[in-house]
Amino acid sequence: MKYVQSVESVAIPEGVTVSIKSRVVKVTGPRGELVKALKHVDVAFEKVNNKLIKLYVHNGDRKHVATLRTVKSLITNLIKGVTVGYKYKMKFVYAHFPINVNVIEKEGSKLIEIRNFLGDKKVREVPIPTGVTCELGQKDELIVTGNSVEDVSQTCADVQQICRVRNKDIRKFLDGIYVSERGHIVEEL
User: Fold this and answer.
1) Are the C-beta atoms of residues 162 and 177 closer than 8 Å to each other?
2) Please, is 165 exposed, middle or buried when counting C-beta atoms within 10 Å of its C-beta (0-12, 13-18, 19+)?
């Protein structure tokens, strides 16, 4: 079944400016600027005023209309990123061998260095993308912060994936580094 016209709208809060040019969304706010290219998505944008953006799909089927909600979520994530930011906390879980984690700079790029995972001699390194900061919290905690939810969550996913237990029963060996808390840098009231 074809839908004649489907519409979603995104509200823009105070202090945030959104500019859309040829399906490249640029959001500027108090915490910085984020750019997202949506050229691959067949959605029409209309900036009604400085407080509202409308998204349209004309004559779309069910899956085409579903992309409308996805685009709306992507834009609201950009707006939330430049206003309050994203903060993920990761906990180190180990039974016997303590996991050592450091944030290092190597050849001009920052890395998360993981040592002694399950007693391995192998040093695991995860690159930190630009715009993301990682710091060690209190005991056995890594705090990953940034404006882009995609970059922050992908960094956490890379850390968790590199510390997977292989060739052992994962019900018994629960060692690893896992996301324990998701939140915002600027706490909302």
Assistant:
1) no
2) middle
Q: For residue 18, give the nearest of 57, 56, 85, 72 by alpha carbon.
A: 72
Can you tell me which residue has the tokens 């997202």?
A: 36
Q: Which residue carries 């004309």 as its tokens?
A: 58
Assess whether pLDDT exceeds 70 at residue 48: yes
Q: What is the pLDDT of residues 140-171, one digit of tens each?
A: 999 999 999 999 999 999 999 999 999 999 99
The fourth-level CATH superfamily of domain 3-83 is Ribosomal protein L6 (3.90.930.12)
* 3-83 matches 86-183 in fold: yes
3-state secondary structure of 82: helix
> Rounded to 5 degrees, what are φ and ψ at 182?
-120, 140
CA separation (Å) from 65 to 23, 39, 46? 17, 16, 16
- Architecture per CATH, domain 86-183, reads as Alpha-Beta Complex (3.90)
Residue 3: pLDDT band by 50, 70, 90 thresholds? confident
pLDDT digits (tens, 9 = 90+) for 76-102: 999 999 999 999 999 999 999 999 999
CA distances from 105 to 88, 101, 115 (A): 21, 13, 16
Q: Is the pTM of this model over 0.70?
A: yes
Q: Tell me if 32 sits within 8 A of 22, measured CB to CB.
A: no
